[in-house]
Amino acid sequence: MIYASKSETGKRYQNQDVLFVPVRGSVSLFVVADGMGGHNAGSVASRLATDTVEAEIKKGGASTPDALLLNAVSAANRAVLAYADSDRNCRGMGTTMVAALVFQTKYVVANVGDSRLYQMADGILRQVTRDHSYVAELVAAGEITPEQAAVHPRRNIITRALGTRNDEKIDIFKREWARGDTLLLCSDGLYGSLDDHEMARVLSEAGDDLDFACDTLVREALYNGSTDNISVILIKNKEVR
């Protein structure tokens, strides 16, 4: 597989997003975490959660990849909670997280909050994860449309995050992917300004140049008015020669 990533502060005073991509020879773990909290607390939460997931994955010990990832993200939740309890400047901090373990024909994803993973196959981009947000619940209940959700005044309210309760529910998704498919992990700073069709167009036009695709996605999100941090990871199922 090949992959690339980019994180942009944008119009915020600081970047509270944290990305993780593997170095050569390490486990194929990919993470996007979007921190929340005053001052530096959001960046503390996203960094601590990501570092904890990486450490837990490296320790191993679980019988299956989905159990391993679930245990790692659960440990990250406990770590953020413990840190917030020990430092009054970080009380109330938390972070969203989407984390994936990616293999040759399959991948497993853990999700808490509204950071997302998409899979692009045969030119079609589909969201795999489900947002844990106020507007996503309204859409699921049929009270508003996805188009209305994109501009809803309460679209930034999330209903789950790491570090906000002792036993946070973590969604796990297990999927297959084929040669030529692309996975896109991102924070809401990207998809809040680009719709699925726009993101799919960029991926199609970029081909195997994932660095160019990351740069273009971020640039177009900024052009469309994104005021949030913007983070993206792209992974393509392609043989490395």
Largest sheet: 5 strands, antiparallel
Helix proportion range: 25-40%
SSE order, as H and E?
A: EEEHHEEEEHHEEHHHE
Shape: globular
- Alpha plus pi helix count: 7
Describe the 3D structure:
By secondary structure, the chain is an alpha+beta fold. 34% of the residues lie in helices and 26% in strands. The protein has one domain (2-236): 4-Layer Sandwich (Phosphatase 2c, domain 1). A hairpin with a 3-residue loop joins strand 4 and strand 5 (106-112). The relative contact order is 0.20.
Keywords summarizing the entry:
7 helices; five-stranded antiparallel sheet; Phosphatase 2c, domain 1; alpha+beta; 241 residues
Short recap of the structure:
The chain is an alpha+beta fold. It has helices at residues 41-59, 65-86, 134-140, 146-150, 188-191, 196-206, 210-223; strands at residues 2-8, 17-20, 29-36, 94-102, 106-112, 116-121, 124-127, 171-176, 182-186, 230-236.
